[in-house]
């Protein structure tokens, strides 16, 4: 039976071959630069996709929450790192995970550090998150006083072990000069490594954004990379130059429920609860919530003439259709939508259907492969 015959409502499709190619390409890039690839699984959130990653030499993984770390633990990962300023209310959960799983957390202040010193029952590693221009979170790169306070507090515990410095230059998503951002990031991490490596000779530096990791070929002496979105990519990454649309490994299959020929518009069952509401704007200010692909037995085809979701509500989506699409579409058909932000779409949908008809697990869903 074709995978298409299984679909009656919005369904997130996964092309395993494209996904594997994306993982392989990033693993080869990390190896080429003598870096360790520690992918961020906030995008895939899947045991099975994690098993694919292990086939390409990936042994450690990153999570965005204690909940995700719980889901990933016990799956053979050498270490799981929670790349979010640690929430001290979750120390009991951390202690439970750390009984059986090597795990590390991210620290940015002395308050949380002190609570870990007081309450940890099992060994836990930590990175200090550094802010070198993004402005979202982290210790300012020149705030050596705070860095050293955190390190001194951690020394009071035989359970809390310093691993290194973590930097997420998230402004690569909205600033065009990625090379300049990466020069800033490289310089920041290199300075910190030089300053603290005598006292901590095993410390490592890690950088973690997909746009930069995908396009850059100069990483200096950074030890590790931790991108996440690269396993699927999406329209945002394509616009940033990190991938081609043909590298996008997921699309949302949506049923056509009405057609307005006089307006070249198609109503589909697929909205914000499926895709989330990330949007791209063209040069004229028109909104794009996703682009149409044509589904077939072997996956999907990117048409020459673009059609896109011009608006979405909770369950509805309205496609502004090309003449080519209008000539062939009918009510009851299935269309595919390439997402603007695959991480949010995957999180919203909670499972995947591969193009060979196999259900793949997701941390937010109940389905298992």
Structure explained in plain terms:
- With 369 residues, this protein is of the alpha/beta class.
- It folds into 2 domains: 3-12 and 244-360, D-serine dehydratase-like domain (Lyase, Ornithine Decarboxylase, Chain A, domain 1); 33-232, Alanine racemase (TIM Barrel, Alpha-Beta Barrel), CATH 3.20.20.
- It has 12 helices and 21 strands.
- The chain has helices at 16-32, 47-54, 66-72, 91-98, 110-119, 144-154, 178-196, 210-215, 235-240, 272-275, 323-328, 342-349; strands spanning 11-14, 36-37, 60-63, 79-85, 103-107, 124-131, 139-140, 160-167, 204-207, 224-225, 250-260, 265-269, 280-281, 287-288, 290-296, 299-301, 308-312, 316-320, 334-339, 352-354, 359-360.
- Helix 5 runs parallel beside helix 6 (144-154).
- This is D-serine deaminase-like pyridoxal phosphate-dependent protein.
Summarize this structure as a short list of keywords or feature phrases.
elongated, 2 domains, 9-stranded parallel β-sheet, TIM Barrel, Lyase, Ornithine Decarboxylase, Chain A, domain 1, alpha/beta, 30% helix, 369 residues, 10-stranded mixed β-sheet
Please give a quick description of this structure.
The protein is of the alpha/beta class and 369 residues long. The chain contains twelve helices and 21 strands.
Number of helices: 12
- CATH architecture of the largest domain, by name, is Alpha-Beta Barrel
Number of strands: 21
**Category from helices, strands and their pairing:** alpha/beta
Determine the strand fraction and express it as a percent band: 25-35%
- CATH superfamily of the largest domain, please? Alanine racemase
CATH class of the largest domain: Alpha Beta
Poorly predicted sequence stretches spanning 5 or more consecutive residues: none
CATH topology of the largest domain: TIM Barrel
Mean pLDDT: 94
Radius of gyration: 22 Å
Please give the domain count. Answer: 2
Query: What percentage of residues falls in helices of 4 or more residues?
Result: 25-40%
Largest sheet: 10 strands, mixed
Shape: elongated
Q: How far from one another are the termini?
A: 17 Å
């Amino acid at each position: 039976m074709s995978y298409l015959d299984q679909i009656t409502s919005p369904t997130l499709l996964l092309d395993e071959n494209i996904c594997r190619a994306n993982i392989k390409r990033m693993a080869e890039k990390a190896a080429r630069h003598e870096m360790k690839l520690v992918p961020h699984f906030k995008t895939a959130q899947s045991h099975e996709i994690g098993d694919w990653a292990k086939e390409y030499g990936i042994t450690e993984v990153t999570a965005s929450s204690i909940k995700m770390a719980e889901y990933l633990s016990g799956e053979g990962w050498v270490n799981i790192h929670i790349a979010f300023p640690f929430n001290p209310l979750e120390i009991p959960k951390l202690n439970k995970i750390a009984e059986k799983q090597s795990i590390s957390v991210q620290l940015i202040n002395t308050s949380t550090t002190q609570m870990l010193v007081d309450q940890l029952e099992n060994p836990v590693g930590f990175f200090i998150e550094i802010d070198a221009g993004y402005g979202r979170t982290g210790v300012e790169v020149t705030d050596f006083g705070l860095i050293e306070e955190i390190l001194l507090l951690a020394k009071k515990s035989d359970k809390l072990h310093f691993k290194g410095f973590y930097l997420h230059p998230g402004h690569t998503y909205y600033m065009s000069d990625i090379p300049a951002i990466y020069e800033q990031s490289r310089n920041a991490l290199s300075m910190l490594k030089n300053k603290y490596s005598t006292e901590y000779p095993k410390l490592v530096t890690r950088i973690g954004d997909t746009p930069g990791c995908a396009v850059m070929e100069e990483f200096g002496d950074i030890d590790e990379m931790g991108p996440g979105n690269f396993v699927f990519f999406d329209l945002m990454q394509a616009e940033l130059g990190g991938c081609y649309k043909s590298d996008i490994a997921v699309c949302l299959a949506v049923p056509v429920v009405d057609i307005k020929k006089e307006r070249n518009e198609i109503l589909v069952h697929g909205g914000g609860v499926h895709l989330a509401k990330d949007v791209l704007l063209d040069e004229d200010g028109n909104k794009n919530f996703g682009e149409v692909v044509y589904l077939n037995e072997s996956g999907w085809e990117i048409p020459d003439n673009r059609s896109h979701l011009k608006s979405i509500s909770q369950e509805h989506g309205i496609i502004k259709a090309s003449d080519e699409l209008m000539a062939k579409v009918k009510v009851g058909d299935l269309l595919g939508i390439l997402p603007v932000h695959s991480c949010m779409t995957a999180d919203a949908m909670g499972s995947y259907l591969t193009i060979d008809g196999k259900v793949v697990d997701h941390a937010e869903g109940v389905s298992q492969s």
